[in-house]
Amino acid sequence: MIKLENPTIGFNWKNALSLAFLFSIVISLQTVLPWSIFGTMTAPVVWILFICFVILYRPFIQSLVLNYIFCFLLHSSSGVSLKVLLLTMLALTLSLNSVKKRIFVPGFQYFLAISFVGLLLFQLYYTLISSLVEPVPALFDFPTRIIELLLTPVFAAPVFVVLEWVDKKTLNPQSFRSEEII
Fold first, then answer.
1. 5 falls within a domain
2. Mind giving me the DSSP string for 106-141?
3. Is the pTM of this model over 0.70?
4. Residue 25 domain boundaries
5. pLDDT tens digits, residue range 5-52?
6. How many domains in the chain?
7. Does residue 1 form part of some domain?
8. Which helix (H) or strand (E) holds 144?
């Protein structure tokens, strides 16, 4: 049997691959399903919940590596520039990690609050970095961003439950939710 955890760096590959697989399913469904149901209405940004969960429950380097893996998956199903996406993810990970170092309360309510803040910061960072890096920057469509901010928290509870379950199944019991995440 192959052991997927490297004890020298503490990175659990089984967990990372499980999260990446779920992330790819979510972005695939998010690419197709909302257009079928809602038409041209803005879809919730469910993948940001994965990003925020990883930032909250992983050490900084692990969260950055996982989120960069998520960026490559997200880039393959969207028209987003990879350099803008990677820079935005770095800024978001640094910001939310600094909040986590100051205040961390495990549980759903904190996850919901951080996910809301994370989506807001992602939208702001993406617009700012796009305007600095790209020749034709992304526009900040205010009504669309408000709809995303209102719809995304609806999916926070089921995503949180699934991601907690994946962590319980793929992480070692002694490393699960240890103090090392902060």
1. no
2. -SHHHHHHHHHHHHHHHHHHHHHHHHHH-SSPPP--
3. yes
4. 12-171
5. 433 345 678 888 889 999 999 888 887 777 777 677 777 889 999 999
6. 1
7. no
8. helix 142-151
